[in-house]
Amino acid sequence: DSGVTQTPKHLITATGQRVTLRCSPRSGDLSVYWYQQSLDQGLQFLIQYYNGEERAKGNILERFSAQQFPDLHSELNLSSLELGDSALYFCASSPSGEPYNEQFFGPGTRLTVL
Amino acid sequence: GESVGLHLPTLSVQEGDNSIINCAYSNSASDYFIWYKQESGKGPQFIIDIRSNMDKRQGQRVTVLLNKTVKHLSLQIAATQPGDSAVYFCAENDSIQGAQKLVFGQGTRLTINP
What we know:
Chain A is built from no helices and eleven strands. Chain A has strands spanning 5-7, 10-13, 19-24, 31-38, 42-50, 53-57, 64-68, 74-78, 87-94, 104-105, 109-113. Chain B starts with a strand and ends with a strand. Chain B is mainly beta. In chain B, the strands form two sheets. In chain B, strands 2, 4, 5, 9, 10 and 11 form a six-stranded mixed sheet that branches. In chain B, strands 1-3-8-7-6 form a five-stranded antiparallel sheet, with no helix packed on it. Chain B has no helices and eleven strands. The A-B interface holds A 2, 4, 31, 33, 42-45, 48, 50, 55-56, 58, 90, 92, 94, 97-108 and B 31-32, 34, 36, 41-46, 49, 51, 89, 93, 95-107.
């Protein structure tokens, strides 16, 4: 158990809908990272937050957004969902926002868009 | 653009043998590399990392080798055990202004035969 929690574990929704994925980092970790894992694209970095502020951005679509709250939990919002958004979404956390920190991954949320 | 890839998508070894998993990267500016293990139904788990100022680093039963000349990374697992069966990813840090932005390879599935 990495100490990172994600909810829900599974999510099934329809195209055009909006969902919110939630992540609680390890106790004391200030950075949260979001990743998408799909069969065709592999594991891709989406976005990083550090202590409430966006720190780095990856291949995140404009339909997707994220935020980190004062209690350091984070939410990833996915809107206007398409079939291709079906994937595993992982959250990871690290103690700081520095580049050489180990990231601890949560168990993931499996999103299925029908 | 940056890309991190693996030479072999699958690797099958006998229990007790040593395993070597390879990875090629293309961004010569990358200064930090990590190996992750992902078991079925779980998030990636950190195994070992190495910075670009090193060419070898050892952990418990694992060794990472970095050859910057040919932009090659490898993970050696000694005396493989059934619990080593998983998908292994290499990742490079495409650091942006001090942040950590990991670019993952496609992964190699390691199977341990009894």
